[in-house]
Amino acid sequence: MNAGSTDFPLKIGIACYPTHGGSGVLATELGVALAERGHEVHFLAYSKPPRLSRYHPRIFCHLVEVSEYPLFKYPPYDLALASKMIEVIGERRLDLLHVHYAIPHSISAYLARQLMPGVRFGIVTTLHGTDITLVGSGNAYRDVTRFGIEQSDEVIAVSEWLKKETQRIFGATKEIQVVPNFVDVTRFRPKEGRTSPLLCACADSPIVMHVSNFRPVKRLGDTVRAFADATAGTKAQLVLVGDGPERAGAEALVAELKLEERVQFLGIVDDVHDLLPFADVLVVSSESESFGLAALEAHACGVPVVGYDSGGMREVVEDNSTGFLVRFGDVPALAARLKTLLADATLRRDFGARGRKRAVEQFDLAQVLTVHERIYHAALARRGRGAVG
Ligand code: GMT
């Protein structure tokens, strides 16, 4: 094992949504890094997580199959996941499950534990945001989400803001540890002379970028409108990375504002670290963002961020230092800040350098790994397992 890791390797099951969304990305990057440190990692998901592309001898992917049946209008994925957890825990003797998203993953983990009396494994749940703020807080899932949190041995929130929201929404008394999102600063790094094949069409123009899953909460239209205001009469390009339900609306808005020549929809990109360094500014126009992984990845690449001061964004972006944050919904202010940055290369460079420094010093993957290992051991200790066996 690498220096700094714990004294014995663990067998860790990671349940996540295998999508390009932040929680899936984080879970995957964490799993890969844990495997590189010597742990054995078993992903449990309905498909292979996108960033899990390379073979690794200590990484295994177990696909959850949900059987179709005419009576099942809504096939019970949570039960299929619990069954897969039981199978993998039994066969591979996992020490713990680290589930990303309270619902339904923490409930599946709880069920697996109930169905395996006498088998002692830890349950660690990471709350990423949407599971708490949008989905879990609704009437349909509030009680089960609270239950999943309470039954976990250790609970992690990705920002102070999310921790407070969880306590407020659920009246949760459970101790919650804050472990922020992290970034691999060796992969996400400033461009330093590299050229991007994807962006050759706008090589000489300033590039404004937005990276998200185009859900309504991302307020994609605000990014487009702010860009239109800030760059009228210029050749600046807006590069939109991602896909999702708001894409059609954004395309219509681009046409309405006659921006077709200056806006590119790239679709979903796996290797976003090859794109981000080529942005001059990243825009994050989310209504709510428990952390804002894209902002952190931009900072690691030396790219300043303009965005709304929503959720945990201010824990990532330092206003007037690594980017600008404005009041949520204030598109003119968003545009004004974007214009300021686009007009001033020195300011962009200074903000970018400070963002990179911040990412390296405070959000580097290596630090977060040791914190996770400590939390895993605390979870095992709660199960009466000071040492594996
Ligand atoms: O932002 C999304 O829609 C994806 C979402 C997810 O659940 O995968 O991301 C959430 O988790 C990320 C990783 O912890 C955070 O960086 C994002 O801020 C958070 N998204 C929201 O809170 C909307």
Descriptive account of the structure:
The chain is α/β, with parallel strands linked by helices and 389 residues long. The chain has 2 domains: 191 residues, Rossmann fold, CATH 3.40.50.2000; 156 residues, 3-Layer(aba) Sandwich (Rossmann fold). It is built from 12 helices and 13 strands. The protein has a 7-stranded parallel β-sheet, sandwiched between helices. A 6-stranded parallel β-sheet has the order 10-9-8-11-12-13, with helices on both faces. Helix 1 links the parallel strand 1 and strand 2. Helix 7 packs parallel to helix 8 and helix 7 packs across helix 10. The structure holds ligand GMT. Ligand GMT binds next to helix 1.
- CATH topological fold name of the largest domain: Rossmann fold
Q: Give the overall shape.
A: globular
State the domain count. Answer: 2
Helix- and strand-based class? Answer: alpha/beta
For the record, the CATH architecture of the largest domain stands as 3-Layer(aba) Sandwich
Which strands sit side by side, in order, in the main sheet? 3-2-1-4-5-6-7
Encode the helix/strand succession as letters: EHEEHEHEHHEHEEHEHEEHEEHHH
Instruction: Supply the CATH superfamily name of the largest domain.
Output: Glycogen Phosphorylase B
State the helicity in percent bands: 25-40%
End-to-end distance, in Å?
A: 19 Å
Number of helices, where a helix is a run of at least 4 consecutive DSSP H or I residues: 12
Number of strands: 13
The whole-angstrom Rg is 21 Å
- What CATH first level of the largest domain would be assigned? Alpha Beta
Bin the strand percentage: 15-25%
For the residues shown, what is the average pLDDT? 92
Poorly predicted runs of 5 or more residues = 1-5
Largest sheet: 7 strands, parallel
Bound molecules: ligand GMT
